[in-house]
Specification:
193 residues; mainly beta; 2 domains; four-stranded antiparallel beta sheet; 12 strands
Length: 193
């Protein structure tokens, strides 16, 4: 387990964090390996550089580098847990067996309502999409604009996770939310009263 998977490579991106959904990460490095066969020169893997299965524990597997005999990958996990690494033959392969860790019920009720949906939004957010999802005020404003598209309600922040929304009729709603994980990612609404 590592605090963040970082890239390897000759392009100046050495040490750049690899965007991975999740809140725990594995870095896998093969020494004396390459994703390119030298003779004749060809890629040995023609698939995508990123796999996003969003399984309950294994969320994302991403290439992290292929430089000077070091082939590396980052794996984003839903939570910290145990894992076991071993090899098999016929064909030769490395197996990383990751234990399942229960996260409990997802706390969000709007706009993100499940763990798989959260992981997909977190991965997208980490890659620069929808940056407003990390801003609680903007999330509440988006909820209010969707509910009252013609008249704009007044949104006032009470504290870090609580907002008062004054409807066009004058009724006041309390909207609360959280960051569901301990690492950067979207903020979600948990209650509306």
């Amino acid at each position: 387990m590592v605090p963040a998977a970082r890239s390897d490579g000759p392009d100046g991106a050495l040490g750049t964090p690899v965007a991975l959904a999740g809140q725990s990460y594995l870095r896998v490095v093969f020494h004396g390996a390459s994703g390119t066969c030298p003779r004749p020169s060809q890629r040995t893997w023609a698939g995508p550089a990123v796999l996003t299965p969003y399984y309950p524990q294994v969320l994302v597997v991403s290439a992290a580098g292929d430089f000077e005999g070091y082939l590396s990958f980052g794996i984003g996990l839903a939570a910290r847990g145990s894992y076991h690494v071993f090899t098999l033959t016929g064909p030769d392969r490395v197996v990383i067996d990751v234990s399942h860790v229960a996260l409990g019920t997802f706390p969000g009720i709007w706009d993100i309502t499940s763990w798989p949906q959260y992981w997909a939004f977190q991965y997208s957010w980490l890659n620069g999409h929808q940056p407003w999802l990390a801003n609680p005020l903007m999330v509440v404003q988006a909820w209010a604009a969707g509910r009252w598209p013609v008249a704009t309600p007044v949104v006032r922040q009470v504290n870090t996770g609580t907002f008062k929304v004054t409807e066009p009729s004058g009724k006041v709603d309390t909207v609360t939310g959280v960051w569901p994980v301990s690492v950067p990612g979207p903020w979600v609404i948990t209650t509306i009263t």
